[in-house]
Write a structure and sequence with these properties.
397 residues; mainly alpha
């Protein structure tokens, strides 16, 4: 299937546009919140938590609400996500907020989004033919990468002339547009399953997490990349007002990886790239104790971000190993774990940078996270043999 054929699907076009505007809101809101937090507290730890700590709340809420990704109508779930993003961005513009109030708003948004975190990817798997899922997923990732490149670059420029409140306002507008697009462009598909939210959430989560086939997939998705996001959480302390350029470079690298791996790499070699790409995430950050200047740092960040393409074959395996009636929750758990891994990585990296003394403490914290990521990538790679395409699983259709 080609890009032209994918965009010929009306539902995919609507989902793509909704995702585009939703990610615009996420990028501007995240950059604004991180900037405000660092300017007000001068704390690398609190800044890292503001950027990537919210998913820790989603971990707790997801235990009880993740089944909503299958129990809600897909269009309702997408519109609900857009409404939550709009509300939290608008609340961040209120005057007089201190840092803990901003964290409460952030936590509330992630708690609400825990109920719908798997809806978009599961809906995508319904819209396109199974053999085209990786290409469609990569295309959606290109939307994310492109939006991050443009959004962080534009945001970095805007912050030179306007306050972060303007970025929160743009984020709220992006959320509104995403919700309207989804409401008008997506058909009202029925829910994938029926049942009680809390009981089903706990039961399916337990089945997924105890599966010897699926659990290694999740860990490979969550751990190596989550530790490297800890490095990304230190971009603002590292580059100050130029951090937007590092974030944009990371998005560019991710976009390139999604295009080359998702569009031009056949299934078999793509599957074999999981471990090398996961290792690539970490290697460039080993250089950061040398305090490379921003242009060199941006090139290293872009190279690292190319490794995010490892998620494509991992998610392809997940589709093949789960049945349709649990797929929304399976991807919701995947998304929640991914974000929690990022949050924990941010907490760990921010704590290391806070404890280390000296001008290069941020660079050494990045180096420590990269070393840990490489070691765990090697350890986790053994479990992937169980989910190879030739194997079976109890949660497989």
């Amino acid at each position: 299937m080609t890009y032209r054929e994918i965009f010929g699907i009306r539902e995919f076009r609507a989902l793509f546009v909704a995702r585009l505007f939703a990610m615009t809101g996420v990028v501007f809101s995240s950059l604004a919140l991180g900037t405000v937090m660092y300017h007000e507290t001068r704390s690398p730890f609190l800044t890292a938590i503001s950027l990537f700590g919210g998913p820790l709340v989603q971990l707790v809420a997801g235990r009880y609400l993740l089944a909503s990704s299958d129990l809600l109508r897909p269009r309702t779930a997408v519109v609900l996500m857009a409404g939550v993003s709009t509300t939290t961005a608008a609340l961040q513009t209120l005057p007089g907020l201190n840092w803990w109030m901003r964290f409460l708003i952030l936590a509330g948004g992630y708690a609400a989004m825990a109920a719908t975190s798997g809806a978009v990817i599961a809906l995508l798997s319904d819209i396109v033919p199974k053999e085209s899922f990786v290409l469609a997923r990569a295309t959606m990732n290109v939307t994310v990468g492109g939006t991050q490149i443009i959004g962080n670059g534009v945001g970095a420029v805007l912050l030179l002339v306007v306050s972060p409140s303007w970025l929160f306002g743009i984020a709220a507008l992006g959320g509104v547009t995403a919700g309207v697009t989804a409401r008008l462009g997506l058909p009202n598909r029925p829910p994938r399953a029926q049942g009680k939210v809390v009981e089903r959430s706990r039961r399916i989560n337990r089945e997924l997490l105890t599966s010897p086939v699926i659990r290694p997939l999740y860990l490979m998705m969550w751990v190596p990349g989550g530790l490297i996001v800890g490095c990304e959480a230190l971009f603002i302390p590292y580059a100050r007002d130029h951090a937007g350029y590092l974030l944009a470079a990371g998005a560019a690298g991710m976009l390139a990886g999604d295009i080359l791996v998702g569009r031009f790499t056949p299934e078999a070699p793509r599957d074999r790239l999981i471990v090398p790409l996961s290792a690539l995430l970490a290697v460039p950050f080993l250089v950061f104790p040398l305090s490379p200047p921003v242009p060199v740092a941006a090139a290293l960040v872009g190279l690292s971000a190319f490794g995010n393409a490892a998620l494509l074959p991992l998610q392809e395996r997940l589709v093949g190993q789960t049945r349709e009636d649990v797929r929304g929750q399976a991807f919701g758990l995947s998304s929640t774990g991914l974000m929690v891994g990022q949050g924990l990585g941010a907490v760990l990296a921010g704590g290391i940078a806070q404890l280390l003394a000296g001008a290069r403490s941020v660079g050494w914290a990045m180096n420590a996270m990269a070393m840990l990521s490489l070691m765990l990538t090697a350890l986790l790679s053994k479990g992937l043999r169980r989910s190879a395409p030739r194997e079976a699983c109890v949660l497989r259709p």
